[in-house]
Structure formats: structure tokens, C-alpha cells
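ugh ok fine here u go
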Amino acid sequence: MTDPDPSSIEAAKARYAAERAKRLRDEGLAQYETLSEHDLDRDPWADPGFTRPAIIEDTDVVILGGGFAGMLTAVNLQRQGIDDFRIIDKAADFGGTWYWNRYPGCMCDVDATIYLPLLEETGYMPTEKYASAPEIFGYCQLLGRHFGLYDHALFQTEVESLTWDDDAHRWELVSTRGDRLRTRFFVSAGGLMHKAKLPGIEGIDRFAGTAFHTTRWDYEYTGGSPTEPMDRLSDKVVGIIGTGATSVQVVPQLARTAKEVYVFQRTPSAVGVRNQQPIDEEWFRSLPPGWQAERTRNFTEVVTGGKPDRDLVADSWGQALREDTQREPASEEEKAELEAIDFEVMEGFRRRVDEIVEEPATAEKLKPWYGKHCKRLCFHDEYLQAFNLPNVHLVDTDGQGVREMSSEGPVVDGVTYPLDLLVFASGFEITTSLVSRLGFDPVGRGGVRLSERWHDGTHSLHGILTADFPNFFVVSFIQAGFGLNFVHFLSESTAHIAWLIGHCRSEGIASIEATPEAEDEWLQILWKASGPLARYNTSCTPSYGNSEGARTMLAARSAVFPGSLMDYAEHLECWRADGSLEGTRVVREA
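structure:
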């Protein structure tokens, strides 16, 4: 790598700051709205006439969520010898985000051999390096069958209320199906990306055409299916709001089939080479026992600056992130070196735009001006190319996003864009309050609601336990570890939760929760260790990764354990090995 011109770095930093300033909004996370507020939350995959008798029972564990988080919790409970559990999910099947996301072109951006969990246990071989959504959804169903999880599942069901009975050491759960479950332990495993969000647009409901979020794709309107081309858009003008990881995959599919496509952009993504390829069966079958855990750990080390001797996955993620440029530099010289590395990686993404996009003005608007750790990088081999097609038009909002809607379509800079179909590729709630994402407000000891206890943000030990909410476990990367490969994080956190539940059962512990003192100590540990990351983020464009640039206690308490996910996993392992359950309040069985 040639050393970049320091003056170019300084110019880029100034551009980063200017672009960030354009996008900062006083509303922060409140700029987004929910699907249910605009009657867009219908499940297109479920039987609307589904009914079943209400269930009244006592059980050991209730798991909220049927995606990988919930399923891995269940599998880890089985490994602890615990088979008395229920899984509740709003969806009509297992899959979580892969149940909801069936939009055309949808696939995972992490290598399938480390993203799909439990491959050695099931013997399943992914078909491609980056698995498609239909394949992942099918694999979730396979997991459900393989581990007997369907017998435990209550689908098309939501929690209406959850109340702690301190005398009985039980949670009392009431569902929207009339179920009444008394459970010793409750696990909130609703997933990292399960609640879709909409941009707050003035007059959003004025639009007279068809509109839906990518998680509620309407194939009756577009034609086709997750595996077949859309065949009803040839005379339709389509708009899509959003240019993140979802839009990067959807736009090429719309470009193939729609009469006209308008892509409304607030912030461009950095889009590198994906290099999709089939899995070599001979290679896959030759892998030795324990290969998936080794490969998973190796990827996490590579993309967090661990610099292992080998890069087993060897993809574009590793090339872009092998150097952790967020870390605390030891000197001014190292600081300059890290800035140069970060700049050159992003320059590579910007050069790729120039190499692919033919129209110079469009190319300029598609260039990402922020650091490489600011937003989730994207990798795709057809997205940038789509803007060379005559029917694809970029509508850049200069960082403002679409702010106004008419009956005909979005209004940007006083120009109305008439559309037949409007697709919202606006992502998910990530760092909003847990109560917002749960959809109900748990009531803990003494009648305290979680919304009250967490009025200023998350209070937790390890991101998992919280005071005044005994036997209540949370799967979320907020105040916990974070992995580029979400499933690696889920594997570590759900194994820890299952251990906690198993330990309580075997040691005669009626309830366990964090102490307020331990919560405060944990937060101070996170704040102290995440200083370099926080400083890096001050130059970042607003996104879900930094709570839209909000300077609030809610955002500050959304800190993540810094560094490698392996460091967080090691911290949990040492905590378990210590055996004292430090930082918890434990009530023994009488």
C-alpha cells in the first residue's frame, strides 16, 4: 500500500465532518416510526385465520423469539438437560429475521460456513459461500426439526403481559392467544434485527400507491417469489427509500424487472466485491471435527485486528477490517498510521465507484465519506452496476433523507417523484429501548416496570441480567459483546444464559438477578474501555451503530463491550469459572 498524501487525509476528515453534520438530527432515534403506526405490519407469510386453544401450564423456561437467538438458547438448554421450555414468536415459523426478510435478492453477507450455526451437528452443507434468504430460512426449519423444537413452539403468538411473582419465584405470562404460562425463567431472545422501522416522513400516509417494508414484501403485487423473478413490474415505476445493506441487494432485482426505479439516498453505503461462489463439496466433507468453531473464532479475530497466522475465511471483510483503526494509538505516529490505513480502505471503496459507475455526477453521489468502522460495509457485485442502466435513477437527498410525501410519491427539493410502488428499505430498531422492541412492558419485583427501571437506558450485568427482574435474561449486544458475525455472538451469549439457568437448577437457586452496584460497575468498565471507540464515533455519520449520533444517556448506556467478541466471551467464561456469581443477588430455594 502506498502512503496516502497527508493533505488528502485531512481533506477527507473535513469532508467526513461536513457530511456528518448534514445528517445529524435533533430527534435522534425518534426520527423513525413503526410499521404498526401506518398499518404496514401485516404478516404476508402467515395464515390470517389461524387459531388454537389457549394453553395454561407451568414450565421451566419461556424463550421469546424463534430466530437463531431463541433456537440457540433452546439447543443450549437441551445440552444442560433442560427440555421443559416454550418458544413464543409473532411469526408463523422459525427463522427470525430470515422468516421476515424474503425480499428479492436477499442473502447473508457473512460466509455461510460460519453464519449457519450447528452445521457439524446437522451435517448440512451450504450451497454457496453467502447463503440466500430462502436457504437460511429452510435451514432454520431444519434446525427446528433436528432438535425437536417445533413441539415447544407457540407461533403467531405475542406476549401481552409478563409479571414477576416474588413469593412463588415465577414469571406469570399472558399471551395474545389467551395463554397463561407460569415460568421459572424468561429469556428475551427477540433477535438483533426483528422490529422493522420506517423513516419519519411528513405525510407518509398520503401516498396513494402501493407501499410496503422489505420485511413484508408483497409478491402478489410484484409477482415472482423469493426464488423466482418478479413478473408484474414491467409497467410500474418503483421507488425505494434506503441505500443500506438491504437496498444494495434489492435494487439490482428491481432494475431487472421494473419500468423505472428511483433510489432515494440519505447516506451511500461502502460497497466492495462480494465474489459469490459455490461451496466445494469435497473440501467441505474433508473438514476435521471442530472445524466450525475454529473457523468462526478465526474470522472474528481477523475482522477485529487479531492478526492470526491464517485467514481461514479469506473474504473482503478480512481485507477491509484486518486492522482495527478504532483502537487507542500508542503514539502520534501510530495515530497517523491508523488514520492512513482507514483512509486508504475507504479510498478503495470510493475508487471502485469511479471504476464502475459511468455517469460522473452519479458516481460522486454514491461515494461513502466516513470511516470504515462507522457503518456496516456492504459487498455486492451488481448494485453499483445497476446505476448504469437507463431505468435506474439515483435521487440523492444530500444527507437529509426524504422528508415529505405527496399522494403521488416522495418530494425532494420541491420535486415530486410519482410512483406506483414505494418500498421502504429502512432497516430495524437496534438501539431503541428494549420495551419498544419487546412490544410489552415486563413488571418486576415490587411492581416496577422495565420502562421505569430503564428509563435512562439499559442497566445490566454483562448485558444479560438486570436488578429487580429476577430470572430475566436478555440476548442483546447492548452492554454485551458485538460480533460482525451476529451468530457467533448469539452462540456465546445463549450458551452463557443456558449455563446460568442450568446452574440455578442444579444449585438450588430460586432466583438470580444483577445487583445495582454491579450494573454500575459494569457500565463504568464499558465506558472506560470504549473510550477509543467513542472518540472514533465522533467523526462517524449517523447510523444505528451510534444511535443516530444522539448525545443522550440512552445512547451512552447503549455502550458495547469493546474489542473482539472473543474478549467478551473469555470474560464470561472466567466469570463462570470463578463460581461466586459475582455481581448477582441470589435467593436460595427454601
